[in-house]
Amino acid sequence: MTGKVWFITTSARGLGREIAEAALRAGDRVAATARDARRLDGLVRAYGRAVLPIPLDVTDPAAAREAVDEAVRAFGRIDVVVNNAGCVDPVSLPAAVEDTRLLGVVNVTEAALPVLRRQGKGHVLNVSVPGRSPYRLSDVAVRGFSEVLAEEVAPLGIKVTVVEPGGPDSGFRQEGSPRAADDPAKVADAVRRLVELDDPPVRTLLGSDAPARPVAVVRRHLDEVVNNGYHDLVDELWAEDLHCHGGSLGDFHGRDAWKTFLGANTDALADLCLDVKDVVASGDKVAVRFVARVTHSGPFMGVPATGRKAEWLGIGIYTVRDGRIIDAWFGEDWLGMLVQLGAVTLPTA
């Protein structure tokens, strides 16, 4: 049977339910968990044997291990783990929030990792709720845990992403809560698309208000356009009259010129990947420090293809307005790259 196998916590309603349904509509199978598995009966009626309902208290490590084992017995593997537990009513005690959110993420992830290691692949998505009390402490911990985990398991073929919705309706929030909820169905569809990326980001913003945020726009450009080659998204992410200041590579004006430049880079620099190290935002401006890694596969800066690999430091400064990049400045260590390609030899001291 084709399609992915998902393991999703807190799947009875809200965002977890929407993610489960988005996966099921795509033809995938879902191990759906809830404290009371009877609340998953609707999913089972709608999708039949593609759904495996599992009762789970995510704060119980033994229960998490048994739930993962049950999913593997039923479906043979797990491709995607979604830690969605912990979006609780704002009047709940902070200690309960911390236990459910942080311990839930750790317990389920630790239970699933042996399976993903054996498979040599998998994707862990940890849902975060940025900027809201009493979530803040646990979400800082979840992000830190996820970022460290991503580095540790990347060599094993396992991907990790922190998903930060722009305020989705978890199913627990009530009227009068600090801000209106986004459409969880749209967030769920974005999550489903996220797991299809070859090189997904370690951290991503989703939700109805997220796409227009300057940082989110720039991250989408780097993650989807540059690192995954979806050049058709340039029309969505860049203004028609954009200006790019490329330093030694010259300046570009307009989307068509930018697309031509991207296409030429793709041909000349195979496997182009920008490894983002720092992102700093102020107003409509976003600064990114990155390490670029490539294989020199075609003519670039007057140098014929060498087949060599190279990496160098770079900085990009973007201006984003109305959800599109209108201006960008780039500074990159082209000299260092040319030295690695053998095109330039630096004098010895």
From TrEMBL:
One of its GO terms (biological process) is polyketide metabolic process. Pfam families: adh_short, SnoaL. Keywords: Oxidoreductase. InterPro entries: Cyclase_SnoaL-like, NAD(P)-bd_dom_sf, NTF2-like_dom_sf, SDR_fam, SDR_oxidoreductase. It comes from the Bacteria. The keyword Hydrolase does not apply. GO terms for molecular function: oxidoreductase activity. Signal peptide: none annotated. Belongs to the short-chain dehydrogenases/reductases (SDR) family. PANTHER family: SHORT CHAIN DEHYDROGENASE, SHORT-CHAIN DEHYDROGENASE_REDUCTASE FAMILY PROTEIN. This is NAD(P)-dependent dehydrogenase (Short-subunit alcohol dehydrogenase family)/predicted ester cyclase. It comes from Streptomyces netropsis.
